[in-house]
Write a structure and sequence with these properties.
Elements (H helix, E strand, L loop, with lengths): L1 E3 L2 H14 L7 H12 L11 H15 L11 H4 L11 E3 L3 H12 L19 H11 L3 H11 L3
Parallel strand pairs: 1-2
C-alpha cells in the first residue's frame, strides 16, 4: 500500500514551504525562486514568486522542457512507479483520509497499528493551512491555468 496527498494541497504546501515562506533562502529553493522570477516577463522584481507565477512556471516546466519537476512540486506518481507495472499497489490511501483508511489497511494485513491518531481540529489534515490556502489561491487562478495544472496532476 501507499499513502499519497491531495495534489492541489501538496502543490500549495510545497510552494508555501519552499518558495513563499523562504525557509530555504540560500539553498536550492532560494535559487529556484530567483530563477522563476528572472524568467517571468513583467514580474515586478521581488525575492519570491507569487503563487500564480509559480503555477505558470510549473506548467512551462512540464510543457516546454518535458522534464520531471522537482519532487516537492511534481506529480507523486513519478515517485511511486505506478506506470508500466513497475509496482502494483493493492491500496492507495490519501493522507486526508489515512486515519480511517489505515485501519482497513492494517486489518487486511493483520497488524494492530494506526497511520494517524484520532482526528481533531488540530491534527485533521483536511483542516491544515495548506488545504485552506489551496481553496483560496486556486480559486483565484483562471480556468485555463487550472485545466493545465489538472493535466499535469490528473494521475495523482
Amino acid at each position: 500500500f501507499t499513502v499519497v496527498r491531495n495534489p492541489w494541497t501538496r502543490l500549495v504546501s510545497g510552494f508555501r514551504d519552499k518558495m513563499a515562506e523562504g525557509t530555504h533562502p540560500g539553498g536550492l529553493f532560494g535559487h529556484m525562486a530567483q530563477s522563476i522570477i528572472n524568467q517571468t516577463e513583467g514580474q515586478a522584481r521581488a525575492d519570491k514568486p507569487t503563487f500564480e507565477i509559480f503555477v505558470k512556471w510549473i506548467i512551462e516546466q512540464n510543457v516546454e522542457q518535458g522534464v520531471r519537476i522537482n519532487p516537492h512540486f511534481g506529480p507523486q506518481y513519478h515517485n511511486l512507479c505506478i506506470f508500466h507495472s513497475q509496482i502494483k499497489y493493492d491500496f492507495i490511501a490519501s493522507v486526508e483520509y489515512a486515519g480511517p483508511l489505515g485501519r482497513e489497511i492494517f486489518q487486511r494485513i493483520g497488524v494492530e497499528a494506526s497511520l494517524f491518531g484520532p482526528y481533531d481540529e488540530v491534527s485533521d489534515p483536511r483542516l491544515s493551512k495548506s488545504v485552506l490556502y489551496a481553496k483560496e489561491w486556486l480559486s483565484k487562478l483562471d480556468a485555463d491555468l487550472i485545466e493545465q495544472l489538472y493535466e499535469i496532476y490528473k494521475v495523482d
